Amino acid sequence: MTDARLPGDDKAAFVAAARSNDAARFALITEPYRRELQVHCYRMLANYEDAQDMTQETFLRVWNRRESFKGHAALRTWLYRIATNACLDFLEKRNDRTPVPAELPGTGSEVHYLQPYPDRMLPEDPQESVVARETIELAFIVAVQHLPPRQRAVFILRDALGWPAPKAADALDLTVASVTSALQRARVTMREQLPGRRLDWRRPATHELSDDERDVVRSYIDAHERNDIEGLTALLRDDLRFTMLPDPGTLVVTAEDAVDGWVSNGLFRRGYDDWRCIATTVNRMPAAALYLRAPDDPEYRLFTIAVLHIVDGEIAELTGFDATDKPWLDLPATL
Fold first, then answer.
1. If residue 241 lies in a helix (H) or strand (E), which one and from where to where?
2. By the 8 A CB rule, do 34 and 55 touch?
3. Of 145, 175, 207, which residue sits at a domain end?
4. pLDDT > 50? residue 2
5. How far is CA 297 from CA 275, 293, 326, 334, in A?
6. Are both 229 and 318 inside the same structural domain?
7. Dihedral angle computed from the Cα positions of residues 43, 111, 239 and 159, in that order, rounded to the nearest 10 degrees
8. DSSP-assigned states of every residue in 267-292
9. Where does the pLDDT of residue 24 fall: very low under 50, low under 70, confident under 90, or very high at 90 and above?
10. Listed range (3-7, 55-59, 217-221, 255-259) with the worst mean pLDDT
């Protein structure tokens, strides 16, 4: 994306609003950037609630530093610089925002603070939507978390947003050589974390679900609502990777282990056998919101959201998230 969408008179209007201390006018000019800045913070932090907080922190900093914007750089660049540094300051203060080794030997690490991102909050700008899917999918977000914070910022600005090295260097107060070196190291880590995945993030990619994905979600929902463990199992790849967040120690890497765990925890037994589900999307990925009705309860209550990565008509990754008390998911609490 470029800054071409911001005409010179808008930049001038921003400067005028900053000088006049006109908060309403200032907000009117900056508010259109909120969604893309929040996505940027989410890529940095992998947590929707943290991203919301840091986006709000960004706008507070923008207002407090409004007089420092002289119009030499594009407004969008200036906003991203403030948002990036807000995220870096946040990460510097938190020691619980890095991946931790998985309890299952040989399975890498887990990102317990990962949260899904509701599609309704993605930017509406068509150009942003074109690149959004592969740089907002869970696998990408998790992989980015394995980068040190400043290296992470370089990678997102350069490879996810397509910024040239001098522009990224200016935003991070680094030299171009430092940015180039950090990007090279980041790309090595990303190749290790995403084996077999396309790594050309700036090449346009569709954000629409495929027919295969829609069919699998329908079959997944049907099996759940019919308490059909065999039908559910048939949808899974043998090397399924399953985890339930934010609970630690839930990662398994075979379909057999996943199903055994579901059954041993009571899936489809009394109390866990009256389901209604709705198809949805988060992170531009197919998902199913699962509603459970307890005995003697007249309503089905939102329980979890299952996010599916589907390969060749089979579920290769299933990430479950606790969906209770998450109004920002924009799902009905009951059915």
1. strand 236-245
2. yes
3. 207
4. no
5. 12, 6, 21, 11
6. yes
7. 20
8. TTSTTS--EEEEEEEETTEEEEEEEE
9. confident
10. 3-7
In the chain the first and final C-alpha atoms are separated, in Å, by 40
Q: Is residue 170 part of a domain?
A: yes
- State the total domains in the chain: 3
Question: 79, 57, 56: which is closest to 68 by C-alpha?
Answer: 79
Classify residue 1: in a domain, yes or no. Answer: yes
For residue 189, the tally of other CB atoms under 10 A from its CB is 17
Q: Are residues 222 and 185 in the same domain?
A: no
Percent share of the chain, pLDDT over 70? 92
CATH code: domain of residue 88: 1.10.1740.10
Identify the CATH number of the domain in which residue 220 sits: 3.10.450.50
In-domain check, residue 115: no
**167 within some domain:** yes
Give the tens place of pLDDT for each residue, 46-105: 999 999 999 999 999 999 988 888 777 788 889 999 999 999 999 999 989 999 988 887
Q: What percent of the chain has pLDDT over 90?
A: 71
Pairwise CA distance, residues 31 & 66, whole Å: 14
- Per residue in 195-248, pLDDT (tens digit) is 777 676 666 556 678 999 999 999 999 999 999 999 999 999 999 999 999 998
Q: Looking at the structure, do residues 44 and 69 belong to the same domain, yes or no?
A: yes
Which uninterrupted H or E stretch holds 304? strand 301-311
Q: Which of 207, 240, 256 is the last residue of a domain?
A: 207
Mean pLDDT on 250-273: 95
Distance (Å, whole) CA 250 – CA 304: 15
Cβ atoms of 268 and 229 within 8 Å: the answer is yes
Closest CA to 315 of 216, 198, 214: 216
Range of the domain at 135: 125-207
